[in-house]
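Weekly sync, protein design subgroup
Attendees: M.S., D.O., the rotation student, P.L. (late)

Item 1: inverse folding check
M.S. brought a backbone from last month's batch and wanted to see whether the design step gives back something sensible before we order anything. D.O. pointed out we never logged the input encoding, so this time it goes straight into the notes. Structure tokens as presented (375 positions):
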């Protein structure tokens, strides 16, 4: 079962602006960075009205309800239909949450919410409220610390301690932005959250640590052994440097044996401007192109570059079975199809299809300008 978290915010028009979007973004970051992120489901409700509060809990059946916004000792402030503040008392919250079986914890991240928390102890297992006024930045710090711990698999009590410590780590700020509608003196020693252990007992979900079975360990060990053996064979030249996907017939090993591995390039049909040999690489050794379509080899060719007069000499072209292809032509070279001028186009016919490839040499760089099937 996933742990369902419902994030609720209210910032009425007649109240000072709070950084609620930032707070919820950071809460989501806390969950998403966790290795257990798939164990959580987060729903967010903004500009919450009393009926939204009821409907969201009915629809989502959350385990943790988190409210961020303004409050006073008499109650929290939601919004009415016009966007102005509408107070909901602690008694009313108690009556509402008594109707829900899923909620295990409520976080009232607003000023003076300790007063509402005292009512909720009768109907919920865990209630977190604020002792007095709390600065906007400190409220955010608490949320980040709390949900970092929740996302790491800690219980409510442990997560609460992490949240309180997060406020202390960042030092309480004495700036504007209290989460209350009234203007009162900020008391330095009275700004921390409080946790109430409620009278109601519920079976709250927990993160289940995924245990690795012996079968999975054996499978992983076998796979790693096979990979290590394959690398050993590769280094000892039992395998060709060419990807085994394109050497299913085995004949390409022989065809490419005299070409250096770093000069064997795969080109997929539809490719454009693919760099083959850069400025710092030598041009006096053969280059091999393995031409593919849908990851299957259609032809391979070996050619050389003559940089002085900027021409390409085609040494040979073979099909996927390494049979020599003679049905090809170039648009340059004075009738010699084995010679291709710079920017020249080579047309290859194989397996009842026709392909076009254009080679380019510019500023010391050899590249394939295009390779595609001619329809």
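Designed sequence read out in the meeting:
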């Amino acid at each position: 079962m996933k742990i369902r978290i419902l994030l609720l915010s209210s910032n009425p028009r007649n109240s000072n602006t709070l950084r609620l979007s930032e707070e919820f973004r950071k809460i989501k970051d806390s969950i998403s960075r966790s290795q257990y992120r798939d164990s959580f489901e987060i729903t967010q409700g903004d500009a919450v009205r009393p009926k939204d509060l009821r409907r969201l809990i009915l629809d989502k059946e959350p385990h943790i309800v988190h409210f961020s916004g303004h409050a006073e000792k008499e109650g929290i402030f939601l919004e009415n239909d016009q966007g102005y503040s509408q107070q909901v008392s602690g008694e009313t919250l108690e009556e509402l949450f008594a109707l829900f079986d899923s909620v295990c914890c409520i976080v009232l991240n607003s000023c003076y919410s300790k007063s509402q928390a005292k009512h909720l102890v009768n109907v919920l297992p865990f209630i977190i409220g604020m002792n007095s006024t709390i600065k906007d930045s400190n409220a955010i710090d608490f949320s980040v610390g709390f949900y970092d711990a929740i996302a790491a698999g800690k219980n409510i009590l442990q997560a609460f301690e992490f949240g309180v410590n997060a406020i202390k780590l960042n030092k309480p700020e004495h700036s504007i932005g209290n989460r209350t509608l009234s203007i009162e003196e900020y008391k330095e020693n009275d700004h921390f959250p409080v946790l109430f252990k409620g009278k109601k007992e519920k079976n709250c979900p927990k993160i289940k640590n995924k245990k690795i079975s012996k079968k999975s360990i054996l499978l992983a060990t076998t796979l790693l052994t096979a990979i290590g053996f394959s690398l050993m064979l590769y280094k000892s030249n039992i395998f060709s440097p060419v990807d085994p996907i394109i050497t299913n017939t085995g004949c390409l090993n022989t065809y490419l044996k005299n070409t250096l591995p770093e000069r064997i390039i795969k080109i997929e049909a539809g490719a454009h401007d693919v760099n083959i040999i850069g400025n710092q690489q030598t041009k006096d050794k053969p280059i091999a192109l393995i031409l593919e379509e849908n990851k299957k080899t259609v032809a391979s060719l070996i050619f050389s570059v003559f940089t002085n007069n900027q021409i390409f000499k085609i040494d040979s072209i073979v099909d996927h079975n390494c049979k020599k292809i003679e049905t090809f032509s170039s648009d340059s070279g004075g009738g010699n199809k084995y010679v291709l001028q710079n920017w020249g186009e080579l047309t290859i016919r194989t397996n009842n299809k026709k392909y076009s490839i254009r080679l380019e040499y510019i500023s010391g760089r050899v590249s394939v300008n295009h390779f595609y099937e001619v329809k």
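Discussion: Residues 333 and 339 are 5 Å apart (CA to CA). The helical segments are 20-32, 50-60, 90-97, 114-120, 136-151, 156-170, 214-235, 251-255.
Action: P.L. to compare against the previous round before Friday.
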